[in-house]
Amino acid sequence: MTDFLTLGIETSCDETSIAVLSGADKLLSNVVASQVDIHALFGGVVPEIAARKHTEIINVVLQEALDEAGVGFNDLNLVAVTVGPGLAVSLVVGISVARALASVLKIPAIGVNHLEGHLLANCLSGPEVRLPAVCLLVSGGHTDIIHVEGIGAYRKLGGTVDDAAGEAFDKVARLLGLGYPGGPAIQKAAAAGDARKVKFPRPMIHDSNFNLSFSGLKTAVITYVRTHESEIGNTITIEDLAASFQEAVVDVLVEKTLRAAEENGVAEVWLAGGVAANRPLREKMKTESERRGFGFFMPEFILCTDNAAMIARAGYEAFKRKANPMPLSPQPGLSGY
Asked: Per the omega criterion (within 30 degrees of 0), is the bond before 280 cis?
């Protein structure tokens, strides 16, 4: 093998993922082992269970990623691993494997900010991106609008002041009895509902800043359910509530992001993070971006949720530009870009 090969490792929460990236954008493998069925039994991720499952499966995932890529350990040039943010007990599993591989193979290991990984997933999904861009990074733990001035140069324009969008999806899905994870459950139910049935608020949509809020919207759904109990199942269905809630979230995310793009004079709008897999969000962001004259990028579905391909890309970019290395130790509260 003559290409520079980066092995990416991602264990920040409940996905065990390992990928092999050739150069900057030739993805040779991206294996993801999900624990979602296990944690669904508890209505959310249980850290101790997540860490134990990472430990049980990571060697199997590693070998599968190498086999799928058609490479061996000695072909690798760099190991990139998520060091935060995330669950400390989960992060340490991937970091331990990265340290061991780097030591045995005598190659460098580099720590990666999980959030930068999500941003750069857009660089793995088709034609070359144009910068600067504004990216909406939307997930269970983060909802931020980011000015991507260049690779490695990021400026947060605004973010949620309370619940992240994904967190709100989880809480509303639980309220409506739709299960976990909330995003896919809400989307599935909403497909059979009428979003015009309930006009939920669009918090902060007209504020001049780029901050967001979803706690009040979540409370509005709770209040509606409590005060319209007799109507639910008759004139209003659970599917109608899911559709109305989802539309409110999507409207706020799209409007705030595009206004940020307009006011910052960027070439493109990006979408990233686990909630970026939501089809109505993807469709409306694409339609509105193009209508307002912006190029639009979003990762394919497998690159929206936690995965090692994005970690490999972020690690490769940091290594190439000789960025100050992050400590190879768990940083669960890591913030910034």
From this structure: no
Measured between alpha carbons, how far is 180 from 44 in angstroms, rounded to an integer? Answer: 7
3-state SS, residue 89: helix
Q: Are residues 110 and 163 in the same domain?
A: no
Total tally of structural domains belonging to the chain: 2
| Strand order from edge to edge, sheet including 26-34 | 26-34, 15-22, 5-10, 78-84, 109-113
d(CA 83, CA 310): 13
pLDDT digits (tens, 9 = 90+) for 91-116: 999 999 999 999 999 999 999 999 99
Residue 63 and residue 67: Cα distance in Å, rounded? 6
Tens-digit pLDDT profile for residues 231-271:
998 899 999 999 999 999 999 999 999 999 999 999 999 99
- The pTM for the full model equals 0.95
CB environment 187-198: b (16+ within 10 A), e (fewer): bebbeebebeeb
* The dihedral formed by the CA atoms of 308, 314, 318 and 323, expressed in degrees to the nearest 10: -100
Q: Identify which of 171, 151, 10 has the alpha carbon closest to the alpha carbon of residue 87.
A: 10
C-alpha span between 337 and 334 (Å, rounded): 9
Task: Calculate what percentage of the chain has a pLDDT beyond 70.
Answer: 99
Q: What is the dihedral of CA 105, 28, 26, 30, to 10 degrees?
A: -90
The pLDDT value given to residue 41: 87
* Within-domain flag for 336: no
Are 89 and 150 found together in one domain? no
Q: Is 203 left (phi over 0), alpha (psi -120 to 50) or beta?
A: beta
Residue 239 in domain:
yes
Residue 287 and residue 149 in one domain:
yes
Same domain for 307 and 292: no
Determine contact, residues 318/112, Cβ cutoff 8 Å: yes
**pLDDT of 38 higher than 90:** yes
